[in-house]
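Hey, quick one: can you model this chain's 3D structure?
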Amino acid sequence: MKELSLIKTRNVKEADKLIDYLLNRPKTEMVGLGLIYGPPGLGKSRFAKQKAIMEDYIYLRLEANMTAKSFAIKLLEVIRYHLGMSQVKIRGTANEIFNRTLNILKNYDNIVIIIDEIDYAFRSQKILGSIRDIVDETLSVVILVGMTDAKEKLLLADSHYFDRCNYFCEFKEITESDIKSICSQISDVKIEDSIIRIIKQKTKGNIRKLIKALYSIETNAKNNNLSVFGIEQLKSLEIM
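Sure thing. Here's the predicted structure for all 240 residues.
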């Protein structure tokens, strides 16, 4: 099995639209804030990480125990690294550190910052406020990535914050067509269309479950010297 690349599934195409929309917005009239949300296992974090690598974006994953100061430090660290600045020990209060970050970002027009696991920030008004200040005071694009109820939580946290968000992208179950594309691009064995339909039913459109199913199929095919995997082979294989 080949490594799963950023295949153009329905979700990936919609997330790409979000980024294009924010990058091409009238920057002096609209802030560059967007939200990608949806259930676990649909590839949100995979998209965020791979897109950051492919397009040279900044990627930051929030942690459960992150404070306003640790967030400010981590953000400044990743921005300095991204811009090739010297890495020195960061000192000062949370506000002082964050203001240094703002001063750097104000000098750039099209920096894209992807903040994953944004749900952890909903318990910290200071972290949410810092993110809001970035989009309010700079021309940066900030893309938040969260779980199914992230959109609702954003509204409950701050209605004004919610209004600032100029694009929402919901990751949904991957389609049968998506699964067929994924299988054709990463599988080393040909998988018949009848199996694709069964995989969709079994995995319920969850990419994590899909990868496990494909690994089981490929292992079985390799052990039995098969180049094509069909219904007959599936009978002896539990893919879930």
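One thing worth noting: The beta strands are 32-37, 58-61, 112-116, 141-146, 167-170, 190-191, 228-229.
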